[in-house]
Specification:
Blueprint: H1 2-22, E1 30-32, E2 35-37, H2 76-87, H3 91-105, E3 106-108, H4 111-115, H5 124-134, E4 137-139, H6 141-154, E5 159-164, E6 167-173, E7 182-186, E8 189-195, E9 217-220, E10 250-254, E11 260-262
Parallel strand pairs: 3-4
Antiparallel strand pairs: 1-2, 5-6, 5-9, 6-8, 7-8, 7-10, 10-11
Helix pairs in contact: 2-3, 2-5, 2-6, 3-6, 5-6
């Protein structure tokens, strides 16, 4: 009898946990061929292809999921950043406070542990809503990056999402910031700072040294139309390409006068989830 009860409890746990985890993200979602799509027809379970949340192809990268929280779709995340303009009129302090929100109130959690999918992106408003209602949210590297990029826009900064081998982070344009271990030049403008919020002790401006000479791709976040139509019946998101490339380039200017120029921002075939500490 005890074995039967234990088996029943185990089945109940396996059945309920995915529902509880998925309930953190509310909205209009639908499933097609094993993938989850949102109301804008952005596929949350892959970064690749026309409907992927980062729209990565062999020749392009566009973080379309960030546009779900900008322009006509501004919501909790943008407003949270906007409110900090009044609370912290000093730009340096404001930029740090935004970073601390993502770092301290979003616990790094893999997509497989939280949702049961190897990939599942959360948009900025979904994550900010959990922060405001529950105090603490969960997400992985791209979720941290998306939240930061949108909040920085709301707070009056220019921001971007950057892809490194197996990783995603945010950039903020803050040319007067003196605490960074590396200053980057993006699209010919020096003053971009790396925002790596996945580690609990990371400061704003800390960039992992492993990426100093890596091939990187960055995309400045602005309000852009999404304009995706529902995928045709039976169609799957695009196959993950063996390599991806963008036309963006990053010039990394670390201290000690060393310069690395990344002219070919290739990415690995899959965005492996890594926690940067």
């Amino acid at each position: 009898m005890r074995k039967i009860i234990a088996a029943a409890i185990a089945i109940l746990i396996l059945t309920v946990i995915p529902i509880v985890c998925f309930a953190q993200v509310e909205g209009d979602f639908y499933e097609r061929d094993g993938h989850i799509f949102d109301q804008w027809h952005v596929c949350r379970t892959t970064a690749y292809g026309e409907h992927g949340f980062f729209q990565i192809t062999r020749t392009a990268f566009r973080p379309v999921i960030a546009f779900e929280s900008l322009g006509n779709y501004t919501g909790v995340a943008y407003e949270l950043g906007s409110e900090l303009q009044t609370t912290y009129p000093d730009r340096i302090q404001r930029a740090e406070q935004i970073f601390y929100i993502a770092r301290d109130r979003v616990r790094y959690t893999s997509d497989s542990a939280q949702f049961g999918y190897s990939e599942f992106a959360i948009n900025a408003d979904e994550l900010a809503d959990v922060i405001e209602t529950k105090g603490i949210a969960r997400g992985d590297c791209e979720d941290h990056a998306i939240l930061l990029a949108v909040m920085y826009k709301g707070a009056g900064f220019r921001s971007a999402i950057v892809l490194a081998p197996g990783h995603a982070a945010a950039l903020v344009y803050l040319p007067d910031y003196k605490k960074a271990n590396t200053v980057l030049s993006f699209k010919g403008e020096v003053g971009w700072i790396w925002a790596e919020a996945t580690g609990r002790n990371n400061p704003l401006g800390w960039m992992p040294e492993r990426y100093f000479g890596a091939r990187l791709a960055a995309y400045e976040v602005t309000a852009e139309p999404i304009n995706l139509t529902e995928p045709s019946d039976g169609a799957q998101p695009a196959e993950v390409p063996s390599q991806t490339q963008t036309n963006a380039s990053l010039v990394i200017l670390p201290f000690m006068g060393i310069m690395f120029i990344i002219a070919l921002p290739w990415l690995r075939s899959r965005l492996r989830r890594k926690r940067m500490q």
